[in-house]
Design goal:
alpha/beta, D-Maltodextrin-Binding Protein, domain 2, five-stranded mixed sheet, 12 strands
């Protein structure tokens, strides 16, 4: 294994409030930064010892995070925001310390529905061939996969709350559910889309980067009271995970992490399925010929990792769109409180990671532009909503 470079001996170490941290994750390829940080012990250079805990579902991870059994976690962006608002579960003030990755998710259809889509060309016509309400799975009600699935359906004229049945299934159980004909489609992270194709039970027809190129995905999340009472520890943890994300951009390191993720305590499936969609980190999927089929990104000189509040505001607009919450005028304040930008900036400076632009303009699959400038007008501009 390639070992992390030692810290600058002239640097003054911070007094850490806690040095042993338990981090939760779900069996997905984008848990790679946590696995790298643990196996290469990047935390030691920052005064930390890391313990990883694989959780069976996002709900289980949430519950352990809120109970204090986990100090922080690899989490869906929307999980942190959903808990902050108390949507469908307990309300607790949350903190997003950094973004762990962008892209890397996909939508896979059953073979029958994929064939119908190829024949009829439009999704509404393909769904009509089923003769019943289609069933699609996502992984958590306020999570990224639910939002990507809803956005993708609506952009093609299918109402996600009326025209289909949406069910929640933990990522590792998705392929079995598809194989048993319980689902017509699913939205999940890798390697589970690749695994469905390998088993011959479904076909990937859209990458999440086609919905929103370089969208935010998993974050390093914790309770806000933990970040407030352990500020030096939280900063050291961000520094550790930034080192891990930077390592993943190194030559050959995606192949190396795929070899580690195959271990049963992490993902435990065929290494080729993990490696297939991790790619090199610098190029699109080798089999892709569709615009915006982009690779999972972990670092890219820090452009991935800054917890930009506007990204969080986007999730709030979608919760309003689907009536998970009533309209509010304080989306910016909510996002500014959750996303720990000052803590991140301090951590990034300590490990020589540049800070990207605070505001960016992005075009999603339906042509709608998101730049965070007017959340209210953005929500009102959708033709399909709850």
């Amino acid at each position: 294994m390639n070992q992390p470079a030692p810290l600058d001996p002239s640097a003054t170490p911070m007094p850490l409030e806690k040095t042993h941290l338990r981090l939760g994750f779900v069996s997905l390829s984008d848990a790679a930064p946590l696995v790298v940080a643990k196996l290469l012990e990047f935390g030691h250079a920052h005064g930390l010892t890391l313990e990883l805990s694989r959780e069976p579902s996002w709900a289980a991870l949430r519950d352990k995070l809120l109970s204090g059994q986990l100090d922080a976690a690899h989490a869906l962006y929307g999980l942190a925001y959903g808990v902050q608002l108390g949507i469908g579960g307990p309300q607790t003030d949350m903190a997003v310390l950094m973004v762990l990755n962008r892209n890397g998710q996909a939508i896979t259809l059953s073979n029958r529905l994929a064939d119908a889509l190829a024949e009829h060309r439009t999704l509404p016509q393909a769904l009509a061939t089923l003769g019943r309400k289609p069933v699609f799975a996502q992984t958590f009600p306020t999570g990224t996969h639910a939002m990507w699935l809803y956005y993708w359906l609506a952009a093609q004229g299918v109402h996600p709350l009326r025209d289909v049945e949406s069910v929640v299934i933990p990522p590792p159980q998705m392929v079995a559910a598809l194989a048993e004909n319980q689902l017509d489609g699913l939205c999940v992270g890798e390697p589970w889309n690749a695994a469905a194709e390998a088993r011959g039970v479904g076909r990937t027809i859209a990458y999440s980067s086609e919905i929103w190129p370089d969208h935010p995905e998993k974050v390093l999340a914790c309770r806000r009271d933990f970040a407030r009472s352990h500020p030096h520890t939280a900063q050291a943890l961000v520094q550790t995970l930034l080192e891990a994300c930077r390592w993943l951009d190194g030559p050959g390191h995606r192949k190396e992490i795929a070899h580690w993720l195959v271990r049963p305590e992490y993902i435990g499936i065929d290494e080729t399925l993990i490696a297939r969609r991790l790619g090199s980190g610098n190029e699109p999927d080798a089999t892709a010929s569709v615009p915006n089929r982009l690779p999972v990104r972990f670092f890219e000189r820090g452009t991935v990792n800054y917890p930009r509040p506007d990204d969080g505001v986007w999730f709030l607009t979608q919760y309003e769109r689907w009536r998970m919450i009533a309209h509010r005028d304080d989306y910016r304040e909510i996002a500014a409180a959750i996303n720990q930008t000052e803590l991140y900036r301090a951590a990034a400076k300590n490990v020589d990671v540049p800070i990207p632009a605070e505001q960016v303009s992005q075009v999603l699959m339906d042509g709608r532009v998101w730049d965070g400038s007017d959340p209210d007008a953005y929500v009102k501009g959708f033709d399909i909503h709850a």
